[in-house]
Predict the structure.
Amino acid sequence: MIGLLPWAWLCTLPGLLLTALGRGQRPGLASLPGPLAIGLAGVAFLLGDHQPVLHRTAEWLPLVPDGAFSLRLDGLAAVMLCVVGFVSLCVYVYSLSYMRADPGQRRFFCLLDFFVAAMTLLVLAGNIAVLLAGWAGVGLASFLLIAFWRDREGTLGAGLQALAANAIGDAALLLACVLVPAGQGDLTTLAQIGPALLPGGFGPLAWLIVIAASAKSAQGLLYFWLPSAMAGPTPVSALIHAATMVAAGVYLLVRTAAVLALAPEVLHAVAWIGVVTAAFSALASLSQPNYKRGLAYSTCSQLGYMFAAVGFGAPFAALFHLLTHASFKALLFLCAGAVIHAAHGEEQLAKLGGLRRQLPQVMWLALIGSLALVGLPVLTAGAFSKDLILEAALHHDPALGWLLIGSVFLTGLYAGRLFFGVFGAGSSVPHREVHPPDALLLLPLWPLAAGAILLGWVGTPLAALLGTPQVVPVVSNLGLLASGLGIAGFVAAGLWQRARAGAARLPQFGVPWLGPVTGIGRSLASGFAGLHSGRLGLYVFTAVIGTAAILLFAVARAP
Amino acid sequence: MNWFTALPHGLQAAALLTAFAAALLATAGALQHSRRAAAVLGGLGAVIAALPALSAGDADALAIVGTCALALVAMLLLPAAELQFDEHRLEGAGLILLGAAGGIVLATSTHLLAMVLGLETLSLAVAVLCGLGRGSRPLEASFKFFVLAAVSLATMVYGIGLHAYATGSFEIGAPLLAGSALRSIHTAAVVLITLGLLFELAVVPVHFGALGVYMSAPAGFAGLAMTASKLGAGIAMLRVTAAMDPAIIGPILTGLGLGSIVWATFAGLAQRELRSMLAYSAIAHAGFIALALGCGAEGRAAAVFYLVVYVASAALVFSALAGRGAEPIPFASLRDRPLGTLRTMALVAGLLSLAGVPPGPGLWAKIGVLLPVWRVAGPLLTLVAALGGVFGALYYLRPLPDLLAGLRRGERATADLGARAAVVLAGGAVLLFTVLPWVGTQLATLAPR
């Protein structure tokens, strides 16, 4: 039975088929068992003897250097399966209510099923070829779900931005697939490849992995797509663009940490990328007028912490923060969805506010999520995982470490700004117009809130299980300092909001370079397409001149 | 019949196809009023022509069976084709068979003059088939293709003349006659013959003629032009590149291949209409095939796999579009005028495969090409090709949200029975390469070393 667990990625396919075929009174109901089974597969492994379960079909793709169909379920993959399975289940249940009135809800659940299958395949991939299949699959699902509401302006453009960023990552992974020697694409043994067999040693391979991870996790210059991706339905933002797919880059870095360790300059760059993204995105979040975009920048920032952890040589800290972040960020997004649902689709912070009386349950849940994000010690999971990262940062590179600690204050500021901006004083949504969330919408928020509070305590056993035994402190001096900064920021944002009676906001900045870059791309595209002008003379001229030029080149080179 | 069985398989198939084409044209009067009769008879001809080659396991057999399968798909789509005059459907069937015969001769010949004969038969059939389409756009594209094909033919024939002068033979791979002065002439011959074949493959800078046909011809005919031409020219190129000095042919093919990928990827990104997008993307795919062909024996194997996957995927896409109408298909119209479930899913599967997005087999075909490129041409060119490959997904996936949104409209789009059969046939091939990609890579071993 345990041997079948690596095939967990197929679990959502029956639901996909049933939903696509229109079976069931309520679209999406047939899809529920899929993510549950995936989560249980992860739990079953963790409760077992922890021996990796492998499947390998050799010669699946004979043209590819390591073209085996290789699946691997180990401790790391099992933890990810739990994250993917249980967060997905919460989002599915939430979506049953959230998408109830949408005419495309069957398509929505089919796409979710496809995403979960691809994400699970990515997690269970044993080698680069299978990883690439899952990697591209989640990118496709993300694009289709961002552009789900095709009637709404800007959704296709947002989806294409995500696709473009993903394409850069896909190209990097494609090259990594080409780079590894035949039969040595196993993700767990990449570091054992003889350096002589890799052109340029481990450096190029490590860079390709980092570029791929940065694209998927919206880090460095490749952060631009994530805020735009908020054009998709909120459950998608919670599942794909907060908890799972964006974490795939971090997962890849953790999975290949041994390779990165062999290229110290790359590891150092990863630390820098993470710290700079964490700080920059936190600032950018403060300038967002849109609730979901504010949360999206927060995701970029938190993923920056995870990147930094890998760069500081603490991959377990990155994975642990991935786990806690999945819980509290999915919670925050689903709370945001409940707010937006209640406010009839309104996402602008300036038009929200004062909802604590109309949505008290959502307010308390959002408070739990926000405090976990800030890192309230002992009581929230985020404090445990963030402390671990900050410890590693100070130990490894004090300058970067202090920069990261400074970012915690910014985290508090933006978390407070978003929380008090929606639930604090002032009201722009008339009371009678608020549409209260139903029980089904609120139900999945509670397990996520429980995760946001309790998951910190699993750190120590989790570290032992993954073979990196260490004690995750409940509280430390550094943790208290960081938490103090975070809470100070949170309270300051609340006071600011009370004084201004509206969400405080920095001058807006986001992706200043995107416009010029896409402008150049558009010019090149229309220029090249313009050559097909319909003028026969030009075509003949091009063919003749081209032929003559090639002929001259060849004859000149001939021996 | 001993003389017939003594013929090479390629000639047998070409003879059978030509005989069926002649029979179709001879019975024109009787069959003129039936939309299906010509397609049925023509389809039968394509199946029978493929039979003798089924037992052979070489690149010729792949070309024969593949081309006949493409002719069968085109024949199934014939009743749904948007023609200017309905009575031209019968001529269409005859031209499909003749084009297939030309493609087979082109792919299986070792004699350069026979190759020219095949190439011209295929080109003329494509030009006329395109011209049968409804409206003025197909006619204009047909004329331009015809003129550019003539330029290409002149180039190739001149190259064959130089080749005969330098080697004293019309056989591919014939050794050079004594005399060092002939080496340059031979090089020029190789380049000119290659460019003649590259016209059929539709590689920059000799791609404009094919581009117009791909955009304007009725879907079934455009699909045949896009696939049978590439299959025939691609397999002919396997033979040519295997026989020629890689130091001469290699840089030319890799350079033109990369140029095609870059040009078509950028131009494809500007498209907002499905047929145009598919046309530009066909140039990018031709670039990948040329790139692989320029990378020695390993590249030739990768080119075969790429060709097979591309041909199946393109045939699926055009099968899904058959009968949609003669006018352009803006992406947004896919939402308002849905294709129906079967054809929508077929189009999605075809586009994913062409884009190189799993679960389609296109990604593996691209990796197969990048490997020899990495070894032969180095990391920079591989990087450009990889970026071209993945950014191609941007234009392929762009219509998908509209396509899928169209599914919920609930309208039942009517599809001709033949078109549905073509979708099932081409879809089966894509599914096979998706689930069992090693079958495709086994075919790659048929490439000449």
Observations:
- Chain B is about 75% helix and 0% strand.
- The first helix of chain B runs from residue 2 to 6.
- Chain B has a mean pLDDT of 89.
